[in-house]
What we know:
It is built from seven helices and eleven strands. By secondary structure, it is of the alpha/beta class. Strand 3 (36-45) and strand 4 form a beta hairpin. The longest helix has 14 residues, at 62-75.
Amino acid sequence: MPVVAVISGRGLYRKGFTDIGKDLHFEEDTVSTPYGALDIKRTQVGDLRLLLVSRYGTGIRDREMSRAAMAAVKSVGADAVLSTFAFHAAEPDIYPGTLLVPEQYISLGEERGPRASRMEEPFCPVLRTCLHSASDVHSIPCRGGNLLQMNSPGGYTRAELELARRLGAAGIVRNVSAEARHARKERMCYHPLCVAVGPYQKGDVYTPTQRAGFGYYSVLTVLWDALWRIEDSRDCTCRV
Length: 240
């Protein structure tokens, strides 16, 4: 029986999948880790055991959150993690709400993950296939590509977005490398699903949160379908 964790923002953690008609009953527990205590919601649907974790509003320092989340879900049995991120699009043809299943990341600046071997493929190829298959069956456009990680506390400058374009990245994201490295350290399969919140244009009236909301239902739909495609036995080396 697969045990899959979904790490996301507060909206998905609070409401689960009710916005796409999946009314699930969750039990909430507090799990202690060496990096802080974390609330986890748990449920079982058929042969799937599902865990939900919010990376915000936990009281855990930002630089420790990825480590705490992976340690917590591993301690309650998870061996696969899907994670949602908003990314700032670097290309003008990537509209708000566009989904991206990244293949690689380029990390600049402060590293927030542990040293880990075998990071040539930072994300699980089996989970990537599950996400793409889920988007295909629902006819939800979902592109591939690379992301540039920059842990800037605010928005990104035009020069930073131009750097992402020159490096061949679809956009800029925060903290994805830390989650990937801590998942690898805990020997769990891991893959992010990202939604575009840019690029910003002159006269833009939308906040980043509003922009991310444009793809909210698509993210829920793809995640829910992908969960059911994850099997106990997976042909990858993530857990070795």
